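Internal tracking record. Fields below are filled automatically when a chain is submitted to the structure queue. Please do not edit lines marked as system-generated. If the sequence contains nonstandard residues, flag them in the REMARKS field before resubmitting.
Queue: standard
Priority: normal
Entity type: single polypeptide chain
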Amino acid sequence: MNKMSAASTAVRRALLYVPGSSQKMLDKTKSLTADCVAYDLEDSVTPSRKSEARSNIRRLLEQPRPSKVKECAVRINAVGTGFEADDIDEVVRQQPHRPPRPAS
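SYSTEM-GENERATED OUTPUT FOLLOWS
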């Protein structure tokens, strides 16, 4: 049996996936309470709106994280789909490193 180390395991009460193509839903995350908000670029976003979703998420991540959201994540498209490199270029690589918020 394979045991996971404590460093690779996270327990969350709430994980909320939000489509990056819905500005209304992205804006709503600013007032939510959640352990983790995962901004989705994969199956909740149609291929024709992938570019728009990347830009929406990048702009959102440039702002301070909402105080009631402990963690933000971005769900990129799977490797081999042809979308993953653009996801990383637009969203992940352009983010400055931000240290984790101290526990309150």
